[in-house]
Amino acid sequence: MLISSRHAGALVLCAAAFTSLASNGAEKAADAYPSKPIRLVVGFGAGGITDVAGRVVAQAIGEELGQQIIVDNRPGAGGGIAATAVAQAPADGYTLLLGTVGTQVVNKMIYRKLPYDPAAMTPVSLVSNSPFLLAINSSVKARSYADLMAYAKAHPGKMNFGSAGNGSSPHLCLELLKLTSNADMTHVPFKSGVEAVNAVVAGQIDVVCDAITVIKPQASAGRLQMIVLASEKRNPEIPDVPSSKEQGASEFLVGSWNALLGPASMSADKVDVLNKALVKAMAKPELRKRLAEMGIEPMPLGVAAYGQHLVAETAKWKRVVESAGTKLD
Question: How many folded domains does the chain comprise?
Fold first, then answer.
């Protein structure tokens, strides 16, 4: 069959239009974010408060996005191994970091060489905070913050405290306590917070500072004595434990906070998508209830709130690190 030049031209135009529509459709599909699972890298081992908070929030955000968020535990170097992995990943929004005070603030103060730049990472939002709880071995003759400080000052250098290692949040928690109270206590580092708590239970050390979910089970079993919550207010999960502000220790405020970050130069539209999903997830009563049951508090959301928080935390921990003289290779 012969096709006239007029009909041939029309066919060419139709083919071109179809190709253009197909191309535009493919581009839109490729631009849809997220179109595949996202990896959330956590700098601490499974079971710790950072991992627990990360998994709960990852599931909630994933449900909002309609994509799975896979938690990837990369413990070591105060979260530095995880932060380095994310910093070196493509800035496509599919590799994110659950940042902490260690990865974003303290590591640059205590490590002489850091393989990533915390300031270069793309902030998405603060996420949550888990106030730290100060606890002691039941044999220590103290039942309040004032008792403990009096005992420590009456026995300078004799009391010791355990932590998850040099530069860890529990270590800095006790260094802040020493700085703000002038108590003289000796640091004993362990490989994990759980090991430190077990050492207090066994009577090997006297004092420990960690998240409510880590300490409360041991205290409920009568193996630890909860002394003070390092927060401005009491927590409903442990209503009988006074806050540090109540006990006249208003500077003793410590928690394991988390933030969502991406590699440097991650696009603003992907940040916006993640932010909106996080806001929706954190507004749900069932999620807030679940977090509250673990002693975890939602934090102000958004990039601006993260920036303000980082400024305050940097000033606070710079003072503590300099006082403690903590430095790592």
Answer: 2
